[in-house]
């Protein structure tokens, strides 16, 4: 699955604040709070679009892994309304 496919799927989800928890390749999400899912995804897309070779760039690969993890586990995370104050 390409990064664009992952980003598109996340952007199709209802926009919300989300608490990401879990484990992925050395990264432990211990309640990482994302205040605005769509903004978070768009910021990552912007970073990747600025990269000259995203397939080889370490940061781009990590962003893709993290977004794929969020997509695959989205329904297991706690969701909140945006600006709900958690």
* Largest pleated sheet: 3 strands, antiparallel
The helicity comes to 40-55%
Strand line-up in the sheet with most strands:
2-1-3
Structural class: alpha+beta
- The number of helical elements comes to 3
Strand content: 15-25%
| Shape assignment | globular
Based on CA atoms alone, the radius of gyration comes out at: 13 Å
Measure the end-to-end span: 32 Å
Poorly predicted parts: none
**What is the count of β-strands?**
3
The mean pLDDT is 87
Number of domains: 1
- SSE order: HEEHHE
Features:
86 residues; alpha+beta; three-stranded antiparallel β-sheet
Descriptive notes:
- Helix 1 packs parallel to helix 3 (about 60-75).
- The chain has one domain.
- The chain has about 90 residues and is of the alpha+beta class.
- The termini are far apart.
- The protein is globular.
- The protein contains three helices and three strands; from the N terminus they run H-E-E-H-H-E.
- Helices cover about 45% and strands about 20% of the residues.
Itemize the secondary structure elements and their pairings.
Blueprint: H1 3-12, E1 17-24, E2 27-34, H2 37-50, H3 58-73, E3 78-80
Antiparallel strand pairs: 1-2, 1-3
Helix pairs in contact: 1-2, 1-3
Question: What's a quick, concise take on this entry?
Answer:
The chain is of the alpha+beta class. The protein has one domain.
């Amino acid at each position: 699955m390409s990064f664009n496919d992952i980003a598109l799927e996340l952007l199709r989800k209802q926009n919300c604040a989300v608490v990401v928890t879990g484990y992925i390749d050395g990264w432990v999400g211990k309640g990482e709070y994302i205040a605005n899912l769509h903004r978070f995804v768009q910021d990552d897309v912007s970073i990747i679009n600025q990269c000259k070779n995203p397939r080889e760039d370490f940061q781009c690969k990590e962003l893709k892994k993290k977004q794929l993890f969020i997509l695959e586990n989205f329904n297991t995370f706690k969701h909140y309304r945006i600006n709900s104050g958690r």
